[in-house]
Amino acid sequence: MVKHGYEKNPVGAHFGTGNFLVQRFSAVVMALYTIFAVPYILWRSPASYADWKALFAGGFFRLATLTALVAIAWHAWIGMRDVIIDYLHGYALRLGAQFVVAVVLVFYLLWSFSILWGR
Amino acid sequence: MPPEIESPILAKPTTKNMSAAPKPRPKYYELNLAHMWPPAVLSIFHRISGALLFFPILPLLLWMLQSTLAGEEGYARWHQVFAHPVAKLAVIAAAWAYAHHFFAGLRYLILDLHLWSAKPAARASALAVFVLGALAAVAVAGCVW
Fold this sequence. Notes:
The structure holds two protein chains of two kinds.
Chain A: H1 15-44, H2 49-55, H3 59-87, H4 91-117
Chain B: H1 38-70, H2 72-81, H3 85-112, H4 119-144
Helix pairs in contact in B: 1-2, 1-3, 3-4
């Protein structure tokens, strides 16, 4: 069949597919972090301030934690967007809620970075 | 045909229907949690736990992480906070939300691979997620008490 110029895609721009995949990839990152971090913390079993501080002194643990927090932020953005679209009706309410979620997530991310590398 | 009932979650379809398509057929939603199959309840709890993790669990964890790492003083203060029974209950609740979201999410990843999608397996795995989430909460309760 010959194609003539611009053809409209009948099933959208595939933003949904991208979100679907990001939701899964970020979930895998968080799951891997959980599977690694929970036994690791139990193994170190920090019982004092010094132990607790030492746990986060390790570069790898800090980097893994920050990676998981970035995955959480992206995952939460898509998840909260889905929830907002399902339960809040009307553009003003939806966009307002999404704006608040976006600002909060950026705040969480910058805060996470400052906690892990600030001092 | 099931009776047409007022749905609390759907906007009235007739007021803003701008298409020429026929009016949506009567829809019947069974919203009583006790009458739903495990996968449906699991899905709702996945949403609720996810929203709770976004707020307030994550900011509370970040706040805790910040003040416990900032100095001996903050560490001691949070140590005192966690001695309180209400704080212990909050920790258990947060752990349940995390564990449920984790196990339910793993189940969804498995469903994405087209595994366990037949009804018996889907129901059994949903029940397993509830059991694992509860077990994780019990394990955390054992640690904090």
